[in-house]
Amino acid sequence: MKDSVKRVVLAYSGGLDTSVILKWLQVEYGCEVVTFTADLGQGEELEPARAKAVLMGIPDHHIYIDDLREEFVRDFVFPMMRANARYEGDYLLGTSIARPLISKRLIEIARETGADAIAHGATGKGNDQVRFELSAYALNPDIKVIAPWREWDLTSRTRLIEWAEAHQIPVPKDKRGESPFSTDANLLHTSSEGKCLEDPWEETPDYVYSRTVNPEDAPDAPEYITIDFEKGDGVALNGEAMSPATLLAALNDLGRKHGIGRLDLVENRFVGMKSRGMYETPGGEIYARAHRGIESITLDRGAAHLKDELMPKYAELIYNGFWFSPEREMLQAAIDHSQANVSGTVRVKLYKGSASVVGRKSPNSLYSEKVVTFEDDAGAYDQKDAAGFIKLNALRLRLLARQGKH
Amino acid sequence: MKDSVKRVVLAYSGGLDTSVILKWLQVEYGCEVVTFTADLGQGEELEPARAKAVLMGIPDHHIYIDDLREEFVRDFVFPMMRANARYEGDYLLGTSIARPLISKRLIEIARETGADAIAHGATGKGNDQVRFELSAYALNPDIKVIAPWREWDLTSRTRLIEWAEAHQIPVPKDKRGESPFSTDANLLHTSSEGKCLEDPWEETPDYVYSRTVNPEDAPDAPEYITIDFEKGDGVALNGEAMSPATLLAALNDLGRKHGIGRLDLVENRFVGMKSRGMYETPGGEIYARAHRGIESITLDRGAAHLKDELMPKYAELIYNGFWFSPEREMLQAAIDHSQANVSGTVRVKLYKGSASVVGRKSPNSLYSEKVVTFEDDAGAYDQKDAAGFIKLNALRLRLLARQGKH
Amino acid sequence: MKDSVKRVVLAYSGGLDTSVILKWLQVEYGCEVVTFTADLGQGEELEPARAKAVLMGIPDHHIYIDDLREEFVRDFVFPMMRANARYEGDYLLGTSIARPLISKRLIEIARETGADAIAHGATGKGNDQVRFELSAYALNPDIKVIAPWREWDLTSRTRLIEWAEAHQIPVPKDKRGESPFSTDANLLHTSSEGKCLEDPWEETPDYVYSRTVNPEDAPDAPEYITIDFEKGDGVALNGEAMSPATLLAALNDLGRKHGIGRLDLVENRFVGMKSRGMYETPGGEIYARAHRGIESITLDRGAAHLKDELMPKYAELIYNGFWFSPEREMLQAAIDHSQANVSGTVRVKLYKGSASVVGRKSPNSLYSEKVVTFEDDAGAYDQKDAAGFIKLNALRLRLLARQGKH
Amino acid sequence: MKDSVKRVVLAYSGGLDTSVILKWLQVEYGCEVVTFTADLGQGEELEPARAKAVLMGIPDHHIYIDDLREEFVRDFVFPMMRANARYEGDYLLGTSIARPLISKRLIEIARETGADAIAHGATGKGNDQVRFELSAYALNPDIKVIAPWREWDLTSRTRLIEWAEAHQIPVPKDKRGESPFSTDANLLHTSSEGKCLEDPWEETPDYVYSRTVNPEDAPDAPEYITIDFEKGDGVALNGEAMSPATLLAALNDLGRKHGIGRLDLVENRFVGMKSRGMYETPGGEIYARAHRGIESITLDRGAAHLKDELMPKYAELIYNGFWFSPEREMLQAAIDHSQANVSGTVRVKLYKGSASVVGRKSPNSLYSEKVVTFEDDAGAYDQKDAAGFIKLNALRLRLLARQGKH
């Protein structure tokens, strides 16, 4: 017999899997289910999820459908981008960064509805279960968490569908067979993994990609854009002010058109295995490069290098699910402190899969043509200072060499 | 009056600037000059340098011309690539990594010829003076270093040319005017900076690029290649075994053709100013991506993440000129230790400016399809373990949340 | 019913708890038990363990009793000391560093005896279970691990003793009641925790300490000793050459006499909770301070600071049980590289709880009285170099200040 | 001829050296001098400095004498202590942390008095020149800095005294000979270096110590005290609320009495040489240990370990003079973020040179006796969770071992 649960808030997409979970929770736990469906920019209609929930007997006041796009970009994506976070050198953390927001809403809804548990549809092999649950426990240490994929015995597609049919859950025709891969999508990215992608020697087939055109099919002419930043965050595209989500959506359109942001990666999961994922982050890739571009002229070297040293740990924390942890918040405090003057404009060239920074300017620029110039600098820099600078930097190496230590 | 110097080894390219330096050393220091000209793959004839040295009165046995290409790639470029080193997120350190090798030879030649000093043609505003001199002092703490650009008063082009003519140094016609930018080249890269590149808002004009075609002019069809690695180093291209320098040269050809490895960067110099550089690293960019690709399936997560955390410091050390330092060597020892199993084959797609890893395989692969699969894994992984894993990772966060600490 | 196990190697102390485990393995798993008892310098007779194992029916060739003291100090304690490792600022990792060696022998004995499992007596709340098992899995990925404390229901002292008596295991009188705290001991330290130590506001009662006199009872006169180091490892005490274990044992005697190495700490366990421990590391504390002392004159600043930056992670890895991991080995490679010239003599003053370095000398000393002196240094250092050094270090800060960025 | 300077603010102690500097500035630069004398708790009368300045012709409104003790402890010492900063493992940075405050006042006074330069009495071999000047340039990029010790030729004691006498500067009898060592003092510490301390093998003679009794002469009975912390800062001693400077002064008295805080160190200077220093930080040592004590029960592991990893770099920045740098401020932001719940009471035992934490309690304590107990914990922790925790932490190590990679 299961733990006693009175009411559970389920992260509900309206798809077959979470519909089976909804019913299974009702059947196996004998508890009330509250559904929560979030619009994170995944590009799906949400009203069908409401209709399905109603069909499963969920009362209206227990069906939550929230548009979280602005909160997602403003409070999660942008703070992460301030850090130039890339996991294992490349991955822009599109799935990882959405999970803590979903958990935050699950916990809020649990409080509002008096629920004592939450449930999610992540499997027992992946990172998402960890991300959902660490966030949930950090926000409510007494919450119960139900992860059906770790509990039930519906471990093959066939059994899942049999169970669905036995419980009067409609099974769409295209869900009867095995899907060739599994996906996750939000305003920042679409990820695909599993099945046909499991051999890391095989190139990802083009039909897996859904958010970007193939670079080979992208326009033959490059397109130039500008992004304006204020205090480390994007605020305008081509001079037009935009909210965070609007800006990211517009960059997604541009990235799609030019085939930007595809990534084929073998990565290390927190649960200890390697997996192969395919990511499309069209707008995010452009944004990330532009952010580094504006930092390059507005951030002092000391700040910039410290950020680079802290980044791998920061990215790992987000990947592993520790968004709501003291150490992520400490790093964020340091990163945010660095962004006070990261304002200005970046010019980016988009062309067949590439986003290249080709210009940057800022009222806060620390770049000094007067100091750096090959020409006479009128005393802005005394080249003789370099001799002393080198001599003292070399002193310890010379003392070491004198000891014959090399 | 200058310090007394008996004999000086000059890093001599044969160009106008180092020819002026050669003569200036003879005139101002009244000392013998030994010339050292290195083939680092910069793509220039070296025999003209010999002829010019002879004309300046240097005896044959004091003219050194060395082909250092294999040593450069094997002992400097490849070890650095094992670390996935990129300065400030992007720069592949093409100039930085060549300087310690030149200094090493200058010091060796000083020993062989009984010289008590070395000289170089780097200016007082740049990083190269630091790199040359730190390396030199680390290898011979008692060497004298002469940096004419920090000493003389030939601080404008006009004065330099007047001095040259006054001292019978031939001035080629195309050197009479100001060069629109300055360059450095070796087998790894060509860099350009200064003059027409000094406004970071202006896009780099296409004529600055010399090592790569414009991506827009690159072939319309992608090209696929494979690179084989053994213990972290590249050993074959498309199945054909190659020496380090041969492999890098072949990748340069491929990169040139497909417009790969261009980088327009505002960076932070060690001497304290920001500068804008334009880099072309065609083969290096392909190689660097392939190396990360083979690591992705052969390197354990613990090793991979530690490498990512150490990398910014490692890259900074090389950029700043500390190749011959205990701390760079310590990091190298750690990095090299990690590469024992980094062997296998990577497949890379080259297309209009991009080099993308699309496949990787290895006899040492740590990727386990059996463990990661969405299908039944026959007990390779018990999903129930994840519950305990999450619970204990969450424990401290729950204790914190119970204290109302959020 | 338990997993099928054929033969299990048990880490066996001969005490009541592991005797119960031995019998429980025989009864519950119906398997053969091989006993392994290690002399790590814990200061107990080992032959009684043999006698007890014989009584429990273990055949002679399945009773392993090994003196591992030299291996322990040489291959585990000293390499760790090279890193100046202290967990959370203070703890010298006395328990943590012994676990991987025990696991290593368990796995070796399993191979020799054809056993398919190992077992240990660590509880489910502590770090030791993690350390034993991570080491074991790293050395033999297919080994089965039995941790009876996580499996059985003998969760109170009363039930354990009832079970022992029901199975004819002799229960010494002094083991019938609850022990006021639990201890672990080896040549490096004795730790105590639990029960009477569980309130972190209460001072540790003096009767808990067993390895050191109370500083208040230590001699009123200080004692001076010297320790000689070669390549980072201690080799002699007061000029007398000693093996690693002999040296540590001799330092333990000195530390005991002078009340050195007591530590009362609230620490963070890997399993997520805080615990309060009391540690006595008499010889280790003296050795650790002496090692830093010899490094202070023989280690270059770059190496020393890099070591300090890497140390917390290194210590955490050992504390968490990742001795046999690629990342610990990478860090060890870096650390060991740094120790090539860490040779010389350190003079230490021992007095009522303190071990203070008061002198250090080395043929490899990088300390230069000639350079540092307040007196005329005869040109060893040109004070004017400092002006340029400061000017270039300040340049970026001045450019920043000019932007009004403060 | 010197650079043209109109008016210079001099860091003026009133002692012989800075009196010579004052006159030398008047003579050599022909400029007005403004004197600034700070009370940082060095324990000297300041009014004599005023009288001497008047004698040298400085008008009243150009004589600044400020009591900076509270600002020093509140805004410099305490923030640094929040980080548990120790340079090279031991040094509590007593001199380093005072320099930026002095520079801050120098720059403020320069602004108030319309001065275009500042001057200090630090030599060209030490760290203090760097600290003074980096801070000054960071706060006013256009300030001129005069460092007479790097400029003049009064490089021996004899010449300095001759110059003083030739310029009618009174030379106290006890300043005629060479001082056996040089000192710096403030409320945090007294440092001594040079001369009789220059041989690192010789024990520091007892007469060098001025702030602490010899531990051998300290009371034979230990003394117990409590320190209360709020948000990471000390606020009370033995239950009595105190301002920062008052608290530190009271701890200094206690530390002096018990011989606490002596340190004999060979350290690495930023200018590239090793030096030997003797430090006495009586109150600071007690405070630093108490701060770690209160953190041990109130700081989450993630925060604590991140702090430990960042500390060496933070300490190095302060030691090297980069207090007013973006990277120090970023680290401070992270550290300060961590201190929100670092409140409670620590009990410390003082005895013959040692300060040992023996108790700690807090309303914010994260230590849970219920979770950690050896007794039945009523379900607070499920020991079976540990099995899954270990299994997933081991997974990557097992996959690695399967590849025969060990």
UniProtKB/TrEMBL annotation, chains A, B, C, D:
It is found in: Cytoplasm. Pathway: Amino-acid biosynthesis; L-arginine biosynthesis; L-arginine from L-ornithine and carbamoyl phosphate: step 2/3. Its main location: cytoplasm. One of its GO terms (cellular component) is cytoplasm. Gene3D superfamilies: Argininosuccinate synthetase, chain A, domain 2 (3.90.1260.10), HUPs (3.40.50.620), Single helix bin (1.20.5.470). GO terms for biological process: argininosuccinate metabolic process; L-arginine biosynthetic process; urea cycle. Residues 7-170 form the Arginosuccinate synthase-like N-terminal domain. ATP binds at residues 11-19, 38, 121. It catalyses: L-citrulline + L-aspartate + ATP = 2-(N(omega)-L-arginino)succinate + AMP + diphosphate + H(+). L-citrulline binds at residues 91, 96, 127, 131, 182, 191, 267, 279. One of its GO terms (molecular function) is ATP binding. PANTHER family: ARGININOSUCCINATE SYNTHASE. Homotetramer. Belongs to the argininosuccinate synthase family. Type 1 subfamily. This is Argininosuccinate synthase.
